[in-house]
Design goal:
This protein has helices at about 15-20, 30-35, 40-45, 100-110, 125-135, 160-175, 205-215, 220-225, 225-235, 240-250, and strands spanning about 5-10, 50-55, 70-75, 80, 95, 115-120, 145-150, 180-190, 270-280, 285-290. By secondary structure, the protein is an alpha/beta fold. The chain has a single domain, classed as Protocatechuate 4,5-dioxygenase, Chain B. The longest helix has 16 residues, at about 160-175. Bound molecules: 3,4-dihydroxybenzoic acid and fe (iii) ion. Fe (iii) ion (FE) binds near residues 189 and 240.
Length: about 290
């Protein structure tokens, strides 16, 4: 049986990728940010998974206004880094896991979550920047990665509640896969930021940290956060945070999808690392690592 061992949460910013690729991580502006990910890179070395299920958003790169899937699962054997206007990032190509991805698609679609199946797509900074933050600059990423793209760019976007329940169904899917695999689930994007309009540059440290507390300790309450709260408090792009709830909903202390009312849940996950930093381009960077116990 496959199992989810841990969840990783981190913001993404294209400029973080550029700082890594151009060798600027020790510059005074960037140094505090990358310092916060030093323990995470060590943790990745110590807790190498067999597969990463990576929840992220595409930024009108693979998809455009021509086609807007709410939830899209990458079932391909490999995914190339996208050209977002300055050429593809010089990072390894992403090796997929078509067998597990197809199994998860089958399971969650039968549990009434409609996914778009993607057999070919390039992956943008939403996926490659979290990998770089957690893994550094290796010749190859440490394991296969299943890209899972969520529409948080073009309205209407899915609710936090829907994302949380989808995470529960993904856990059920992983646990019904018949190979012995150690799977990590990553939720990425966020925290507060707004890239356009009168409030461009908005950062809300207090709200971000209160939401992070809730996401870690009371995920049901975090999942109940209304859509308007993200936009009002964390800015238009703060809505990327709903993706973290997919990863959180897949952890062992949340009732498994379809489990009878009152069925026992697993223990609270262990917080292995938590970090928050401003500034990084226009975005507040939040980060946490949760380990399932036992
Ligand atoms: C920035 C943040 C994002 O989430 C993004 O997709 C693009 C840019 C930024 O802060 O610059
Ligand atoms: Fe983004």
């Amino acid at each position: 049986m496959a199992r989810i061992s841990a969840s990783v949460f981190t913001s993404h910013v294209p400029a973080i990728g550029a700082a890594i690729d151009l060798g600027k991580t020790h510059e005074p502006y960037w140094q505090p940010l990358f310092k916060g990910f030093e323990p995470s890179k060590q943790w990745m070395k110590d807790n190498r998974p067999d597969v990463i299920f990576l929840v992220y958003n595409d930024h009108a790169t693979a998809f455009s206004l021509d086609l807007i899937p709410t939830f899209a699962i990458g079932t391909a054997a490999e995914f190339n880094p996208a050209d977002e206007g300055w050429g593809p990032r010089p990072v390894p190509k992403v090796i997929g896991h078509p067998e597990l991805a197809s199994h998860i698609a089958q399971s969650v679609i039968q549990d009434d979550f409609d996914l778009t199946i993607v057999n070919r797509m390039d992956v943008d900074h939403g996926l490659t920047v979290p990998l770089s933050l957690m893994c550094g600059q290796p010749d190859a990423w440490p394991c296969p990665v299943i890209p899972f793209a969520v529409n948080v760019v073009q309205y209407p976007v899915p609710s936090g509640r829907r994302c949380f329940n989808l995470g529960r169904a993904i856990r059920k899917a992983v646990e019904s896969f018949d190979q012995d695999l150690n799977v990590q689930i990553w939720g990425t994007g966020g925290m507060s930021h707004q890239l356009q309009g009168a409030r461009a540059g908005l950062i809300n440290r207090e709200w971000d940290n209160a939401w992070l507390d809730k996401m870690i300790n009371d995920p049901e309450a975090a999942a109940a956060t209304p859509h308007i709260d993200y936009v009002r408090e964390a800015g238009s792009e703060g809505i990327e945070l709903v993706m973290w709830l997919i990863a959180r909903g897949a952890m062992a202390d949340v009732p498994a999808f379809g489990a009878p009312e009152g069925a026992p849940v697993g223990p609270k996950p262990r917080l292995a690392h938590r970090f928050y930093h401003v500034p990084a381009s226009n975005t507040a960077v939040g980060h946490a690592i949760l380990e399932n116990q036992g």
